[in-house]
RNA sequence: GUGGGUGUAGCUCAGCUGGCAGAGCACCAGGUUGUGGCCCUGGGUGUCGUGGGUUCAAACCCCAUCACUCACCCCA
C-alpha cells in the first residue's frame, strides 16, 4: 500500500469541520480589524527565504525543502509566510499606493523536521502582517486581536508572553553584556549552547537544559539594555495590553528563532501540546522590508500554528457533522426512479437530502437514515406510487403524515423552512 | 539529525514458553414479507506495518525498513 509522505497528513471529514470553523472565525475577527486576505505561492526562489529568514537560522540551515526545478532554478517550499508577503508588498509596490497595509493568509508551510505531536512537515499557519505602522499601540492591538480570536474559539489554558528584543541601536550593547556572562559560565553550558554562543547567543536564554538555565540565571535581561525609544515602545505596549484587558506575562527569556525580529516579540503558549509550547508567535520586524529591497517600512506580524490550535480545540470540543433534512427510502424500481429525481430537486432547492441507491429492505434504509441523523424520512413504495401519495416520517416523534406526490418537492421544502424557525 | 517506546479487524486492544488469528465496540444480514434507536440470532470484514532470516512450525525470536509516538533539537 502506498502511504502518505512522512510528516504529512490527511485532514478527514469529521475533523475538517473544526478547521473550517476556525478559519471562518479568524476571517471574521481579522475583517473587523481591517485585514485583507492575500494569497501568495507556496514556492519561492530559495534566495528569498535565505535572505529573509536569515542564513544562520535552523530553518534555512537544515529544515527547508529546497530543490532545483527542471530549468535548474533553486526553489523552496515555503517554511513560513512572512517572507513571501513582504516580497509581494515590495514587488507590487503596494507601499506607493498606501504604505499602510494589513494582510492575513492561511495555508500550508513546509519544514523538514522530525515529526511529532503538534509538528508536521506540512503544517498550516494562520498568518497576519501589518506594514507601515511603527506605533506600539498597533503591537498591543495585534496581540489583542489574537487574544480575541482565541477567546472566540473558546481556547483555554493559554498565556500570552511578551518581550522586547531591542533594535540595531541597543541590541549590540546587550549582546556584548550577554557574551561577557556566557564567557564566564561557558564550561557549564551544554554543547548546543556552546555552539549557540557564537552564532546566536540570545538563543542560550531559552535552552531547557537545567545546567544552562542555572548558568544564565545571572544573565542580564535585554529589557535593561533597551535604548530610550525601544524602552518607551515597550512601555506603551505593555500599558496598552493592560488597557485592553489582555492577560500577559513579561518573559525576559522569550527569544524568537528568526533573525529579522526587532523590538516586540510575543508568543501564545500552552501546556496542552506536550513538548510544544507555542500555539502562536510573532513580533515586529522593522528592518525586513528594507533588507529585501523595499523602502524602510516598519512591520509586525504573527503566525498561529493551525494544526496546534486544532489539536487544542479538538481536546475540548467537537463540531457536529451536517445532518440530512430528508432521507428518501424508496422500495422498488419505480419508486427509486422517482426518488432519484426528487433528490436532485431537493438538493437544488438547498435541502440536504440522502437516499438509498441500492436495493435494500425498508428496515435497512431506516437504519441508514437514523445513522445519518436525518430529520425526516420520505417512504415511498409501489402502493404509494399507485395511490399518488408518499409517507413522511418525523424521525424524532415517529409521526407519519401522507403527502400527495403532486407538488411533493415544494411541500417538503416548505416544511423545512417552517422547521428552521425553531 | 539523535535516543527510547509502539505497530494484530473500521476503532480500542488481548494473544503464555514459537504450535489452527481472538474479544468488545462498529459494520452487514435476519428475527419483523414495508418502518430507525432497545433486544435476540448469525456473519470476521485480517498482507499480524513491510521485506528478509532462523525453525518441522513465527503475530511471537533475529536483521533491515516504513509509519506512529515520547524526549532532545527547534519552532507555529
Explain what the structure shows.
The protein has 422 residues and is α+β, with helices and mostly antiparallel strands. It folds into 2 domains: 16-170 and 226-314, BirA Bifunctional Protein, domain 2 (2-Layer Sandwich); 326-413, Anticodon-binding domain (Rossmann fold, 3-Layer(aba) Sandwich). 40% of the residues lie in helices and 23% in strands. Strands 1-5-6-11-10-9-7-8 form an 8-stranded mixed sheet. The radius of gyration is 29 Å and the shape is elongated. The two termini are 49 Å apart. It binds one RNA strand of 76 nucleotides through helix 3, strand 6, strand 10, strand 11 and helix 12.
Compact description:
With 422 residues, this protein is of the alpha+beta class.
Describe the protein's topology.
Layout: H1 16-32, E1 36-37, E2 43-45, H2 46-53, H3 58-63, E3 65-68, E4 74-77, H4 82-91, H5 94-97, E5 101-110, E6 122-131, H6 136-153, E7 158-164, H7 171-184, H8 191-199, H9 210-215, H10 228-243, E8 248-250, E9 262-273, E10 276-284, H11 288-291, E11 299-305, H12 306-314, E12 326-330, H13 333-348, E13 353-355, H14 362-372, E14 376-380, H15 382-387, E15 389-394, E16 400-404, H16 408-420
Helix pairs in contact: 1-6, 6-10
The structure holds one RNA strand of 76 nucleotides.
**CATH-wise, what's the superfamily of the largest domain?**
Bira Bifunctional Protein, Domain 2
β-sheet strand percentage: 15-25%
The computed structural class is alpha+beta
> Using only CA atoms, what is the Rg?
29 Å
- Helix content, binned percent: 25-40%
Low-confidence blocks of residues: none
The CATH architecture term of the largest domain is 2-Layer Sandwich
Report the count of strand segments: 16
- Mean of residue pLDDT values: 90
Domain tally:
2
Report the major sheet: 8 strands, mixed
- How does the overall form come out from the CA principal axes? elongated
Distance between the termini: 49 Å
Q: How many alpha or pi helices?
A: 16
In CATH's first tier, which class of the largest domain applies? Answer: Alpha Beta
Strand order of the largest sheet: 1-5-6-11-10-9-7-8
The third-level CATH topology of the largest domain is BirA Bifunctional Protein, domain 2
Amino acid at each position: 500500500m502506498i502511504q502518505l509522505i512522512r510528516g504529512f497528513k490527511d485532514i478527514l471529514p469529521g475533523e475538517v469541520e473544526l478547521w473550517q470553523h476556525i478559519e471562518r472565525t479568524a476571517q471574521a475577527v481579522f475583517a473587523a480589524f481591517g485585514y485583507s486576505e492575500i494569497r501568495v505561492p507556496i514556492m519561492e526562489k530559495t534566495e528569498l527565504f535565505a535572505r529573509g529568514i536569515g542564513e544562520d537560522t535552523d530553518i534555512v540551515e537544515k529544515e527547508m525543502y529546497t530543490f532545483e526545478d527542471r530549468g535548474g532554478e533553486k526553489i523552496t517550499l515555503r517554511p513560513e509566510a512572512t517572507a513571501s508577503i513582504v516580497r509581494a508588498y515590495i514587488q507590487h509596490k503596494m507601499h506607493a499606493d498606501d504604505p499602510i497595509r494589513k494582510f492575513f493568509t492561511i495555508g500550508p508551510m513546509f519544514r523538514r523536521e522530525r515529526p511529532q505531536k503538534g509538528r508536521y512537515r506540512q503544517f498550516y499557519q494562520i498568518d497576519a502582517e501589518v506594514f507601515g505602522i511603527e506605533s506600539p499601540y498597533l503591537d498591543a492591538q495585534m496581540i489583542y486581536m489574537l487574544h480575541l480570536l482565541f477567546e472566540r474559539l473558546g481556547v483555554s489554558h493559554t498565556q500570552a508572553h511578551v518581550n522586547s528584543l531591542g533594535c540595531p541601536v541597543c541590541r549590540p550593547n546587550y549582546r556584548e553584556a550577554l557574551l561577557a556572562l556566557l564567557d564566564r559560565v561557558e564550561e557549564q553550558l551544554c554543547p548546543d549552547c556552546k555552539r549557540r554562543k557564537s552564532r546566536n547567543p540570545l538563543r542560550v536564554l531559552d535552552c531547557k537544559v537545567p545546567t544552562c538555565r542555572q548558568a544564565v540565571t545571572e544573565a542580564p535581561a535585554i529589557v535593561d539594555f533597551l535604548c530610550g525609544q525601544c524602552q518607551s515602545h515597550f512601555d506603551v505596549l505593555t500599558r496598552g495590553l493592560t488597557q485592553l484587558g489582555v492577560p500577559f506575562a513579561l518573559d525576559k527569556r522569550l527569544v524568537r528563532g528568526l533573525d529579522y525580529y526587532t523590538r516586540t516579540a510575543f508568543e501564545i503558549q500552552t501546556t496542552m501540546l506536550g513538548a510544544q509550547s507555542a500555539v502562536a508567535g510573532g513580533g515586529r520586524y522593522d528592518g525586513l522590508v528594507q533588507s529585501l529591497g523595499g523602502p524602510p517600512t516598519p512591520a509586525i506580524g504573527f503566525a498561529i500554528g493551525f494544526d496546534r490550535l486544532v489539536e487544542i480545540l479538538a481536546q475540548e470540543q467537537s463540531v457536529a457533522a451536517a445532518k440530512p433534512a430528508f432521507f428518501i427510502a424508496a422500495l422498488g424500481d419505480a419508486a427509486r426512479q422517482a426518488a432519484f429525481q426528487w433528490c436532485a430537486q431537493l438538493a437544488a432547492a438547498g435541502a440536504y437530502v440522502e437516499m438509498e441507491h441500492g436495493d435494500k429492505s425498508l428496515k435497512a434504509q431506516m437504519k441508514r437514515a437514523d445513522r445519518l441523523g436525518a430529520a425526516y424520512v420520505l417512504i415511498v413504495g409501489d402502493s404509494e406510487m399507485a395511490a399518488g401519495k408518499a409517507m413522511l416520517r418525523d424521525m424524532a416523534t415517529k409521526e407519519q403524515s401522507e403527502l400527495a406526490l403532486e407538488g411533493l418537492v415544494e411541500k417538503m421544502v416548505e416544511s423545512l423552512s417552517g422547521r428552521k424557525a425553531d
